[in-house]
Amino acid sequence: MDAILEVKGITKRFGGLVAVDAVDLAVPPGSIFSIIGPNGAGKTTLFNMIAGLYQPSDGEIWFDGHLLAGPAPRIPLPIGGNGDARSGIGRRIRAVPPHRMVALGIARTFQNIRLFQNMTALENVLVGMHTRLRANTLKSILRTPAVMREEREARERAEEILQLVGLRRVKDDLARNLSYGDQRRLEIARALASEPKLLLLDEPTAGMNPQETLRLTQFISRLRQERGLTILLIEHDMRVVMGISDTVAVLDHGVKIAEGTPAEIQRDVRVIEAYLGRGAAAALDTGGKGEHADPGA
Predict the structure, then answer these.
(1) What is the pLDDT of residues 94-143, one digit of tens each?
(2) pTM of the model
(3) DSSP string covering the chain, please?
(4) 1-73+90-105+196-260 to CATH, choices 3.40.50.720, 3.50.50.60, 3.40.50.300, 3.20.20.80
């Protein structure tokens, strides 16, 4: 099956620091693909490159047949003091801006909730629809029948999305007055409003209690099953990752060290070393327990 998202040799440097180092990923359509790793492994940096917030230093990102980031046409660069542009050739990376990513069908949530706190839940979802609305500024000012009809349909659609995430009852409440768990779900609702093909979830269960985590995990599974969404997930809760993922990739110090099914990842010595240290991995292996070790335990 062809991948809907392909990451080829993607690298991100911040000065002398290599945050992501030549990572390859291939995400099949309709799958839940999780990225895990210790703190500072480069997971969110990778997410930010896929979402267009960071421009890669090297490599390519393809989504649904579109090149999101990759080498720009080679251009001459002056080298030396004589200003001779023929004396060297430069290479740079170009990337699609974030608003174009949304239009192509990519939406994301953030590790730190980013809602419009002084807007209602309904208004936050409506904001997520802006790339799908057709009315221009002039028509909106004139309040044409077509604009009014489109706005009415958008409100109905927004209420349906709030119903889907279990927040219709608080549609008129300000985002800042919602519980932490409800704010998390509202952020997902806003992402769904853009009608994505690929949904990037950055630690969606962070800060949730066990009951909230269970409900959100079940909801993520439903999104894949009922809507055919492809979901790329960063998550520290290993029970969530191992429970809903089709494929898991592991980053450590910016390098992909493993990829496989949840069962394969739980047995991988390299993953155990990344989480617990080399000595712990050796002890587990010596004791005959390495086959069943859970890196998130």
Answers:
(1) 778 878 888 889 999 988 888 999 999 999 999 888 766 666 665 666 67
(2) 0.81
(3) ---SEEEEEEEEEETTEEEEEEEEEEE-TT-EEEEE-STTSSHHHHHHHHTTSS--SEEEEEETTEEEEEEPPPEE---STT--GGG-EE--EEE--HHHHHHHTEEE--SS----TTSBHHHHHHHTTGGG----HHHHHHT-HHHHHHHHHHHHHHHHHHHHTT-GGGTTSBGGGS-HHHHHHHHHHHHHTT--SEEEEESTTTT--HHHHHHHHHHHHHHHHHH--EEEEE-S-HHHHHHH-SEEEEEETTEEEEEE-HHHHHH-HHHHHHHH-HHHHHHHHHTT-GGG--TT-
(4) 3.40.50.300
